[in-house]
Amino acid sequence: MADKDRSVVPGVVLIVVGAYLLLREFGVIHLRWQHVYPVLMLGVGALLIVPVVRNRDSGPAFPATLLIVLGTFFLLRNYDILAFDYYFYSAGEYWPIFLIACGAAFVVQFLMRTDDWGPLIPGAILLFLGSAFLLRNFDLYWFDFSDYWPVILIAIGATLIFSSLKRRKP
Q1: DSSP 3-state assignment of 116?
Q2: Cα–Cα distance for residue pair 41/64, rounded to 1 Å
C-alpha cells in the first residue's frame, strides 16, 4: 500500500506539469515564470505546514512559514495586488521582506513550542528590523535608524551578560 501512495504525488505532479505545458503550446495559457514561482512557493509551504498543524511537529514550521510569507508577498507583487508604482520591483526596495519572513518563521517556531523562548528573541529582532527598514523605504520612519542600529548589539550583549549572571547565583 505504501508503494501506491508514493507514486500518486509524482504522478499528479507530472500530469499538472504536462497539462500546463500542453496548454501553453496551444496558446491557451500565457503564464510566465513570475506568475508561477509564487504559487509554487505557496504550494510547497502548504505541503510543509500540514504536518505542523496535524502532528504539532515543529520541524518544518520554519521553512513552511518562510515559504508562505515570501510566496504571499511575491504573489501579491507579481499580480499587481500591491498597488505601488515602482516599489518592490528592485531588490533594494523589497529586501526587508526577507527579514520579516525570517522573523515570522522564528515566531511560529516559538508558537509550536512555547516552553522554548530561544526562537522568540531573534524573531522579534528580525521583525522589528524588517519593519523599520521597510518603513524607511517608504519614507515613513520617525528617526534615522542607520545612526542607532548599534544600540541593538548593545542590548543583546547586555541581555547575554545579565542572563549569565542570573544563572550563576545559587
Answers
A1: coil
A2: 9
**Cβ neighbours of 163 (radius 10 Å):** 9
Helices then strands, counting H and E runs in the chain, come out as: 8, 0
Secondary structure (DSSP) of 52-65: HHHH---TTHHHHH
Q: How confident is the model at residue 169 (pLDDT cuts 50, 70, 90)?
A: low
With a CB cutoff of 8 Å and minimum separation 6, the contacts of 141 are: 132, 135
Q: How many CB atoms lie within 10 A of CB 25?
A: 9
pTM of the model: 0.66
Helix (H, G, I), strand (E, B) or coil at 149: coil
Distance CA 141, CA 161 (A): 31
